């Protein structure tokens, strides 16, 4: 059996032919206009973001690395017959470190000072203020507008 060959539809649209001068004229016009983005007042300033990143590294990064290293250390201890470790305790200890890292992530974000000068070492005094900022950021725009009036 032969396959049916589909007929190609010929389009009746004509292609527009532009000269090189006309074709690139609009391109040059649009490339000459440079728009300067306006700096927005909302968002996290760079010095605050850097401060948050440092806090997150110590409070979330270190426990997460420890959580992953529990598996390696447990494997080494079991394979060299140093001690018999049940798999459930390995998972429980690793989960504890991962939860500590998750808490450290939240603490690192909420304890960062928004002032130009760095705050205290732990930054506990900044947590209530940063929680209020986070709540205000999640309000719909209409509620924020009504609060200002």
Index terms:
single chain; 149 residues; 60% helix
Note down, in words, how this protein is organized:
The protein has 149 residues and is an all-alpha fold. It has a domain at 46-148. Helices cover 60% and strands 0% of the residues. The chain has helices at residues 20-23, 25-32, 46-79, 87-110, 127-138, 141-148. α3 packs antiparallel against α4 (87-110). The chain is flat and about 80 Å long. The mean pLDDT is 79.
Helix content: 55-70%
Reported for the largest beta sheet, the result is:
none
Number of strands: 0
Number of helices: 6
**Weakly predicted, low-confidence segments:** none
Rounded radius of gyration (Å): 30 Å
Order of helices and strands: HHHHHH
Task: Tell me, briefly, the overall form.
Answer: flat
Strand content: under 5%
Give the termini separation: 79 Å
Oligomer kind: single chain
What class do helices, strands and sheet pairing give? mainly alpha
Mean pLDDT across all amino acids: 79
């Amino acid at each position: 059996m032969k396959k049916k060959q589909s007929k190609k539809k010929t389009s009746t649209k004509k292609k527009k032919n532009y000269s090189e001068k006309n074709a690139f004229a609009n391109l040059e016009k649009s490339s000459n206009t440079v728009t300067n983005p306006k700096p927005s007042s909302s968002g996290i300033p760079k010095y605050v973001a850097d401060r948050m990143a440092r806090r997150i590294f110590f409070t979330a990064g270190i426990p997460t690395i420890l959580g992953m290293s529990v598996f390696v250390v447990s494997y080494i201890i079991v394979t060299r017959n140093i001690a018999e470790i049940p798999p459930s305790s390995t998972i429980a200890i690793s989960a504890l470190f991962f939860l500590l890292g998750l808490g450290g992530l939240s603490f690192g974000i909420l304890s960062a000072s928004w002032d130009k000068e760095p705050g205290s070492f732990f930054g506990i005094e900044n947590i209530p203020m940063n929680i209020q900022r986070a709540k205000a950021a999640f309000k719909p725009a209409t509620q924020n507008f009504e609060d200002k009036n």
